[in-house]
Design goal:
Blueprint (H helix, E strand, L loop, with lengths): L14 E2 L4 E4 L5 H8 L2 H4 L13 H11 L4 E7 L10 E8 L3 E8 L8 H12 L6 E7 L3 H9 L3 E10 L4 E11 L2
Parallel strand pairs: 5-6
Antiparallel strand pairs: 1-2, 2-3, 3-4, 4-5, 6-8, 7-8
Helix pairs in contact: 1-3, 4-5
Length: 182
């Protein structure tokens, strides 16, 4: 896979896929992130998106991502080069110690069951832009489609756990996955 040079500010490369690119967030993503983040169906499939989505949350998220500072690298799934939406979803890698990262993603409801999440996760694993030796992921047990995304990308099941969902205001059972790289 050929990575496209890092964008100024974030240091993150653009990662091409067959139908879209994974690119660093930009200010123009704020409106769509706010719209999708406000959708209960999206928020309840994440640990960190609150519902209702507070004013200013999308702006703060995009500003953090664009700063390049912090432990999280964030990409937009952008199909505008192929006549699609500028923002199909978001994928992130949260840096952990010992050259490890945790992958997270969400896809806009209109793009569910289209293979975009599998394509994005497979591309980021293949590109390995942070040079990780291991990637982890967790998905809620009531989202078997998200589990298929991970297994399609070569992740192996580690075990059951639970994680707090801000939108659900509850601990939710999860499945945890691991992918060794290089």
């Amino acid at each position: 896979m050929t990575l496209i040079a890092p964008q100024i500010g974030t240091g993150l490369p653009i990662v091409p896929t067959e139908r879209f690119v994974l690119r660093p967030l930009r200010r123009s993503d704020t409106g769509l992130i706010a719209m999708y983040g406000s959708d209960r169906r999206v928020a309840e499939q994440t640990t960190s998106i609150p519902h209702p989505y507070p004013p200013g949350a999308a702006e703060a998220f995009v500003a953090r991502a664009m700063s390049g500072a912090g432990a999280q690298a964030v990409w937009a799934m952008d199909a505008s080069g192929n006549g699609g939406s500028e923002l199909l979803g978001v994928l992130s890698l949260s840096r952990l110690d010992r050259e490890q990262a945790e992958i997270g993603y969400w896809v806009a409801p209109a793009a569910w069951n289209t293979g975009y999440a599998s394509e994005a996760v497979t591309a980021i694993v293949s590109a390995n832009p942070l040079g990780n030796k291991t990637m982890f992921a967790q998905v809620f047990q009531d989202s078997p489609g998200s589990a298929r995304v991970l297994t399609n990308a070569g992740f192996e099941y580690l075990g059951d756990a639970e994680a707090f969902s801000v939108a659900r205001n509850a601990n939710v059972p999860t499945w945890t996955y691991l992918r060794k790289l290089g």
